Each structure stands twice: as structure tokens, then as C-alpha cells.
């Protein structure tokens, strides 16, 4: 884990999963297409047109369609440069994640896609805190 660009084994780990909506053809399953395919068919990939249209509903999107999800400088909902720098894994698949606390120092995070075989993780990471007594919060130094 890193804090201020320095390694910190006692630092916080943030894992975010979810979907902000289904881009592309609503009748088509996302699991059978790539992010690029979903984005190329998405009506939201033209942010200027979309913001202008949705600006008529200020109760949802604020003044002048100021929707934080639309990022015109980054190509709208779909990033033109591929995967965003803040994202470690990006997939169009739906699924669920699990966080298994194994003991005082280890936890395992896994993401399972709906269309994969049962029990087959698409992505998995082991989080190792090290010796908990060396961390200030456990040793009573915080």
C-alpha cells in the first residue's frame, strides 16, 4: 500500500466495484462484449449532446447539466485512451465481489463474473497487513 507515494504496510486499501449503468445496446448482455465495443455503441459517448439534452432536468443534474459522471475532457462516459489510470481492472461484465477475512493479517478480495463457471474468480488479490503490532493503530500510538 502507498501513502504520499511511499510504501505503508499499515495504510488503507480502497476497493471499489460497481456499474454506473449499462452502456450500449440495453438488450445485449455486457458479458459478451468488450469495453471498447460497449462504448462505441453507447449513446452516452457524445457527452456534449447528452449534457445538452439532460440539462433540461436540473433537479437531477444540477445547473446546466453539470453531471459529475460525464467528463467531456476524458471522452464522456467512455475514456478514449482506454482504461483510466485510477483503474486496476476494467471489464464490461456484471458480477459480485467477496472479501474474506482470513486472519488478523490477511484478507482476500475476489471478483466473480456472472457468466463464468461457479467458483472461478475473474480477479483476485491477497491483502497482507504484516505484523499488526507494528501498526500505530494496533500498538496504541494513534
TrEMBL record:
It comes from the Eukaryota. Gene3D superfamilies: 3.60.21.10. One of its GO terms (molecular function) is acid phosphatase activity. Pfam families: Metallophos_C. Keywords: Signal. Residues 80-117 form the Purple acid phosphatase C-terminal domain. This is Purple acid phosphatase C-terminal domain-containing protein. It comes from Tetradesmus obliquus.
